[in-house]
UniProtKB/TrEMBL annotation:
One of its GO terms (molecular function) is lyase activity. Belongs to the PrpD family. Coiled coil: none annotated. InterPro entries: MmgE/PrpD_sf, MmgE/PrpD_sf_1, MmgE/PrpD_sf_2, MmgE_PrpD, MmgE_PrpD_C, MmgE_PrpD_N. Residues 12-249 form the MmgE/PrpD N-terminal domain. Residues 270-432 form the MmgE/PrpD C-terminal domain. This is 2-methylcitrate dehydratase PrpD. It comes from Bradyrhizobium erythrophlei.
Length: 448
């Protein structure tokens, strides 16, 4: 691929090869650290989950020599398999980061690839952060260019765009030049997959893990001078048009390197689909303001935009369903005044009291409400009606989690995951990762 020719891949390839950590703004640098810290928190919580264990068992017979750690598991696998498993662990509980304009969760595929390759190829903590920021930005840019039509067609955007971010991060850690980086992105276009229909199943986990591994494979192939079409992404028969509408090229490469989408990454206070968070906030507010007795509730109406209803107006048959259910999110917030890991466990999902309250919840569409907002109306047995509207959920760009919030989240999730990791050491290692010459080794030791 000739980088001097105008194409999306060549523009992104030039950015991926030329961007330098020291040139990033303090905002971008801190967003990168925050994203890594939050991702490690979610991975430590699910490291011992049966789903993650199943992924390890499935991959072990075809794995290569041990090259990188599995977060919180005290074992290692080859870099591609470690990236796969760690991406699954980060994303599994719907507690990871979210780029709200696209609903991409960039850390799972991108950081997993960067961490694995740095261990295999001898990178530093600074290298990891630099590659992660570049890959995260490219994943979000590509997603922005095809949103919302891409997701509406059934493509799971974290997986389909995550492979581009993982490829860019991998290309950077392999120190590929701009042409080879562009080829890695073009190859990634042919490795992109993931379906919304599969979100309530283990196939979702596989597609997120495959995005991390696929990005590594794409960069490896590009490093061996395997190329891709110049317009693999935006061409008439390229990825963007095959999976969405006419791509927005300005959103994709406009102000590249100066306007950072990755700096808009957000972090969840609840382990649930991001569009459910305003529902949870509204219910928590109602419970706190009115000292509600859930036994006196006779009806609950949740009103929101089309995306909220499309994602969350669903029956609940397992914990995966519960994390993306309007009905379950409202019920547990009102019943327990909490919405954390326990409230989305199988035990709580099948609790008769929870199921009964879920049955009182109905969802209604209000096309005038913005994405991310919700209104909850509660009718009580004495006829009173209470209402609460949340325009911007906690954890959104308007109400972001603080650094200390993310630290507390990691401490809580690390303890709950039962890995025995020292949360304080992990936190200190992340905040000092690029300044400490032994920072990556210290982080890996804390995570093992």
């Amino acid at each position: 691929m000739v980088a001097s020719q105008t194409s999306v891949s060549s523009a992104l390839g030039q950015f991926g090869a030329a961007a330098r950590w020291e040139d990033f703004s303090a905002t971008v640098q801190q967003a990168t650290r925050r994203s890594l810290l939050n991702g490690l928190a979610t991975a430590l919580c699910s490291a011992r989950d049966p789903v993650v264990a199943a992924m390890v068992r499935a991959l072990r017979p075809i794995a290569g020599p041990d090259q990188a750690i599995l977060i919180g598991q005290r074992q290692r696998m080859d870099a591609a398999s470690a990236a796969f498993v760690n991406a699954v662990a980060i994303n599994l509980l719907d507690y990871d980061d979210t780029h709200l304009p696209t609903i991409i969760h960039p850390t799972a595929p991108v950081a997993s690839a960067a961490l694995a390759l740095a261990q295999w190829r001898g990178g530093t903590g600074r290298d990891v952060l630099e590659a992660f920021a570049i890959g995260g930005e490219i994943a979000c840019r590509i997603g922005l260019a095809v949103s919302p039509g891409h997701y509406a067609r059934g493509w799971h955007i974290t997986s389909t765009c995550g492979v581009f971010g993982a490829a860019a991060a991998s290309a950077r850690l392999f120190r590929l030049d701009a042409d080879r980086c562009a080829d890695a992105l073009g190859i990634a276009a042919s490795l992109s997959s993931g379906l919304v229909e599969n979100l309530p199943t283990a196939a979702k986990n596989a597609s997120v893990g495959n995005a991390a591994r696929g990005g590594i494979v794409a960069a490896l192939l590009a490093g061996e001078d395997q190329n891709a079409a110049l317009a693999s992404i935006e061409g008439p028969l390229g990825w963007a048009r095959a999976t969405g509408d006419q791509p927005d090229i300005t959103a994709l490469i406009g102000e590249l390197g100066t306007r950072w989408e990755f700096a808009r990454n957000t972090f969840k206070p609840y382990p649930a689909g991001i569009v459910m968070h305003a529902v949870i906030d509204a219910c928590l507010d109602l419970r706190a303001a009115h000292a509600l007795d859930p036994a006196r509730i006779v009806a609950i109406t949740v009103t929101g935009d089309a995306l909220l209803l499309a994602r969350g107006d669903r029956p609940v048959s397992n914990a995966r369903d519960a994390r993306v259910s309007i009905h379950h999110c409202a019920s547990v917030a009102l019943l327990f005044r909490e919405a954390d890991i326990k409230e989305f466990s199988e035990t709580v999902v099948f609790d008769p009291e929870v199921a009964a309250l879920r049955g009182k919840v109905k969802a209604e569409l209000d096309a005038t409400m913005p994405v991310g907002a919700a209104r909850v109306d509660v009718t009580l047995a004495d006829g009173r009606k209470l209402s609460q509207t949340v325009a911007s959920a906690r954890g959104s760009l308007e109400r972001p989690l603080s650094d200390s919030d993310i630290e507390a989240k990691l401490r809580r999730l690390a303890a709950g995951g039962g890995t025995g990791c020292d949360a304080g050491r992990v936190i200190e290692a992340v905040w000092t990762l690029e300044r400490d010459p032994a920072g990556l080794d210290r982080l890996l030791a804390a995570l093992a």
